[in-house]
Design brief:
single chain, about 450 residues, mainly alpha, two-stranded antiparallel ribbon, 19 helices, about 65% helix, about 5% strand, membrane, Azg-like_bact_archaea
């Protein structure tokens, strides 16, 4: 009897905190969604240290910084915004940091990390002043839908690539992957399992598919069984506070170009992802996101914390769409992701089981779900259809969410004006057009 009362009290507390009943969800569904999102994005714990390690940073320290920044971001997103959206260091930013800034421009990683810190401070200030919120609210419904569909196609492309179904080609850029590679069949297996379960409307289809694929990999030997189960988290001493210690180097003019690009890319990657995920989760109300300011502040604070600990900017994760597809609707989903990141710091060997072939089926199926936004775009009006189309195809074809958004914003205000609909274009959109043009110009000037 006492146990039942305790259970009811615990549920009541969670319901009041995350408004579960109001969002027509349950604790079980939210936790399952959090598990699904975590499994889909757990790769960042290994990918981020690998990429930043090529810049000369200590991989162990980056591993711990990655986990802690994700924990902070997910917890803030849960309690401030109550959104089922996870936060962790972004892939695009770490690649830019390593390959363009450190290796391309020859800037030492310590100095470059000072640029990350300055960009994070500016990012937080912009969020506090609600500049980011104003920008997101100014974007038209059609472009928001295009971003959602574009992100869906983009993550499906990531899944196809990670699963080995699509590979690089010297003649046609991409081509069909080889079916003689055994691990590719893990992806194919996972796709069919999830698709069949989804067609039968089985709850938790995506998570069941992920677990089934991982088990098949272990049984067949395609996925190596980890040698250890538990390991202590590495120290952050080699990277902690390095950016702050090298702040005087920010006086170098080339560093301001680095800061500008980091700021713009982080700004629009997060904006595009938030809009796409909000559309998928049904959060948008009258073309606006409730509590958008709190969500952006959670993202900003986690980015600032990450820059101090020694990792590149954090971002809202498109893989959150996997959890949303399972039924995640509140911050309890993102809190679950954060808690799992805590455990991952001590059970990191187990995460090696979650290979790209395991997560690929989830990303592909979620891409199908997010592409449904295409049906609501006003394709009959060319001044809307063209920017929307460029936004959608730009994301997967350039492998960058911000570039896809740039294509849309560089054409939308011009075509709307030519069509005699200039009054429907918010002045902020014109500012965004200039900002994206500047971003593309600066990026074009940087070494490849």
């Amino acid at each position: 009897m006492d146990q039942k009362l305790d259970d009811n009290a615990s549920y009541g507390l969670l319901d009041r905190t995350f408004h579960l009943t109001e969002q027509h969800t349950t604790v079980k569904r939210e936790i399952l969604a959090g598990l699904t999102t975590f499994v889909s994005m757990a790769y960042i714990l290994f990918v981020n240290p690998t990429i930043l390690g090529q810049a000369g940073m200590d991989k162990g320290a980056v591993f711990t910084a990655t986990a802690i920044s994700a924990i902070i971001g997910c917890a803030l997103m849960a309690f401030l915004a109550n959104y089922p959206i996870a936060i962790a260091p972004g892939l695009g930013d770490n690649a830019f940091f390593t390959f363009s800034v450190v290796l391309g421009m020859g800037i030492p990683w310590e100095k470059a990390m000072a640029g990350v810190f300055i960009a994070s401070v500016l990012f937080t200030i912009l969020s506090f002043l609600k500049v980011r919120e104003i920008v997101i609210d100014s974007i038209s419904k059609d472009l928001k839908l295009a971003m959602a569909a574009g992100i869906g196609i983009f993550i499906a492309f990531i899944g196809l690539q990670g699963g080995g179904l699509v590979t690089a080609s010297k003649t046609s850029l991409v081509e069909m992957g080889s079916l003689s590679v055994p691990t590719t069949w893990l992806t194919i297996f996972g796709i069919f399992v999830i698709a069949i379960l989804m067609a039968k409307k089985v709850p938790g289809s995506i998570f069941i598919g992920l677990v089934s694929t991982a088990i098949l990999g272990l049984v067949t030997g395609l996925i190596k069984m980890p040698e250890h189960l538990i390991s202590l988290a590495p120290s952050m001493k080699p990277t902690f506070g390095v950016g702050i210690a090298h702040l005087p180097s920010i006086a170098d003019p080339e560093m301001w170009a680095v800061v500008l690009i980091l700021l713009l890319v982080a700004f629009f990657d997060t904006a595009g992802t938030l809009i796409g995920l909000a559309q998928q989760a049904g959060i948008m109300k009258n073309n606006k996101m409730p509590r958008i300011g709190q969500a952006l502040m959670a993202d900003s604070i986690s980015m600032l914390a990450g820059s101090v600990m020694g990792t590149t900017p954090t971002a809202t994760y498109v893989e959150s769409s996997a959890g949303i597809a399972v039924g995640g609707r509140t911050g309890l989903t993102s809190l679950t992701v954060g808690i799992l990141f805590v455990f991952s710091m001590f059970f990191s060997p187990l995460l090696t089981v979650v290979t790209t072939q395991v997560t690929a089926p989830a990303l592909i199926v979620v891409g199908v779900l997010m592409a449904s936004a295409l049906r609501e775009i006003n394709w009959d009006k060319f001044e809307i259809a063209m920017p929307a189309f460029l936004t959608i195809i730009g994301m997967p074809l350039t492998y960058n969410i911000s570039y896809g958004m740039a294509f849309g914003f560089l054409t939308y205000p011009i075509l709307m004006t030519v069509a005699g609909r200039r009054k429907e274009v918010n002045y902020v959109v014109w500012i965004l057009m200039v900002a994206f043009a500047l971003m593309l110009y600066v990026l074009n000037k940087l070494p490849n």
